[in-house]
Each structure stands twice: as structure tokens, then as C-alpha cells.
Design a protein that fits this description.
With 420 residues, the chain is mostly helical. 74% of the residues lie in helices and 1% in strands. The protein has 20 helices and two strands.
Amino acid sequence: MAYTIIKYLGLYILGFCFLYIDGMGNTEGLSIGQIWKIPVIAFLAFKCINYTFRNYAQFRLGYAVTKLLNPDLLNATAGTMSSFLKFLVLPLCLPFFRNIFSSEKALYYLKLLAHIIIISFIPFYLGILKERHTYIAADLLGVDSLIGPFNNAHTSAIYLSISVLVLIFYVRNICEDKLEKIYTWGLILVGLYFLMLTYVRTGYAMCVLGIYVILAYKGSIIRSLLSGALWGGLFYLAATAYIETNDVLNQRLHEETGYKRDDEINGSGRLLFWATSINLWANSDNAQEYLLGHGLQETMEQQAKENGLLVASHNGFIDALVQNGLIGFSLLLLYYLLLIRNIFKNNMESPYFLLFLSWLMSDIAFQFVQGGTFFFYDIMSALIISLPILETQEYENELQAEESDEEQTIDETEDLPLII
């Protein structure tokens, strides 16, 4: 017992250090949080040379490569290489985890990451450590947005959201120990509270959709629809009641920050951002721009020109189209379509299918309203994708072993001498 506690404390401290470093500032174009990941990604790439990439992982890897094939490679080399490395993490982790982990180990590390992420916010919430960044949308409402060890509120909300989903699935469907259940429910409540304090709507949407799937899915279509209708109604009533009694959250959801400028954008501006990016791609001057895109730098410059904000599209699919062209968009879309087909075809009977489905809805929501990629989010995503695959493989191996034992027993019985 003492060894287990010491081991967990050690892992928590180590994990917190990595999360804290991840949010550190820039040095000559690359942040310290990016520099330490370079040898990690190099190690993954080296290990994956002899591994087989499934078709969806191949397309995700191809999408990462398209980051090197647009004008940004010459105009913003450091940023382009950084983006390329970021998008390499998920496709490299997929075959790596599938080849080195059992489902039990994958679940252990996934759960551990969720614990570490939620706990890492506690010293910042208590004021023991000072946050290094602020969130302007919350600042304008006169409140402090909880950012924790990360460099922006969106990163914090996305990490908290996926952590809460993992733990809710685990405590409802896997965990059997009573003390662990109590501890896990405590972490879930703390994680939800911290998520609310980020004031990031993307994180809210991801978490609500993911939890909804976990609670509503019942296997059959009819039962899931009935359960979904019930939980949907309860979610709506609870959310409406809470929002109406929380002025700050109400203003944040309706974008009432009191922030005015000449080229004011109503709401979050996402529809304008999307339209600007789509028009930039649609009005490309040549085949190269249609096929390989305009890159991040030109996209952000066009957003600043038309909307007054130096931002990307706030949509992962539109970003793929405008930054990486029709080829990049197609590769990203094929990754999702083939991933869904593979898991639904081969792994629906796995107890971890529900976790995958919850993550999938949450991740698609993330891509539609934000887009991008985050190191630890991609690691957790790869573990979630790997879990139903690993569990199904283990189950099939057990069946084959049992059949082999039965055949061997039959053969041995037939070889016995006949006794009259």
C-alpha cells in the first residue's frame, strides 16, 4: 500500500512537471514545451519503422506531411516544422501503443493521465502557484479564467474535458473497487468545476456531448434513442437553470463581453472566420493553392484583413482545406471515415467501444468549433482508439487458445490405446 502511494505521488509529480513545462514561453521561435517533445517524437518515429500502420493512421500521417507542402515552409520555417511535429504525434502513437501495450496497461496510463491533468490545476486554483497567462474573454467579464499549468484557456478546457470523460466512463463501466470509485467521483466533480472556471465554450460542448453519449448509449438503436431523449431533456433543464443563475457564464455563452471595436464581430465570429477561409481557398490563383493550400500564415493574415483578428479558421476541417488544400482536407476526412468504419466493423462488442464513441463525438465537436492539435490530448486520443482494438485482439487470442487446447485434448484422447 505504501509503495503504491509513493509510486502514484512520484508519477503525479513527474506528470505535473511535464505539463508545467508544456506551457512555458518561447525561445527563438520554439517554446521550451515544444523542444522537449522533439526527441520523444523522434523516438516514436524510430520505433514505428517496423510497425504496420492501419489505413486510417496512414491517412493521418499523410495529413501531417501536408503541413510541409505549402508556402509556410519557406515563409515561416520554424512554425511549419513545429506544426508538422505536432500533427505527427497521433499517427505515430497509434501503431506504437497497439504493439507495446495490453488493454490493461493502456487503460492504466489513460486513467493516470486524466488524474494528473485534473490534479495539476489544484495548486493554481489554491493560489500556491501563479498562472502565467490570462484569457481575454474572461478578463473582459471581470473574472479570472482558470488556465492552470497551460498556456491558454482553450488548452486547459480541452484537457479537462477529455479527462472528465475518461474518468466518467471508467467509474461507471470498469471500476469495481468502492474506495477507488469514491476517489474517482471526487476527481470528476473537481474536474467539472475547474472546467466551468475556464469559461471556454469549446470545452463545455466537448464535455456535454461526451457525457451524453456515455449516459444515453444502450446498445440498441431504440433503447439509445429513448435514453437519449430522457437524458437530453434533463441536460437541457439543468443547463438552462444553472446558466440563468450564473451571470458571468450567461454573458460568456452569449458573448456579452462589453468589448467593442469598429469592425465588431457578433458572437464568437466563427461563421465569419469560416467564410473568410473558404473564400480564400475558393479564390486560389493556381492549382498548387487549390491542392496544397495557402498555409497558416496567409490564412491568419487574411483573417486579420477581413475580420480584424489574427486567428485561424476555428474549424479543423476548414483549416485543413484552406491551409493544406484539397489533398489535406481529403486526408483528414478519410482518417475519420476509415477510423469509424474500422472500429464500428470490428470492435463494437468491446467494453471500450462506448469510450471510443464518447471521444469521437467530443473530438468531432472540437474539430468543428476549434480545430488544432495538442500533445497530451493526442496521446490520450491514441490510447482511447487503441483500447477497443487491443481488447478485441486479446479476446480473439483467448478464444483461439481455448480452441487449440480443445483440439489438443481430442487428439490425445484419440491416441489412447483401446481397452477391451
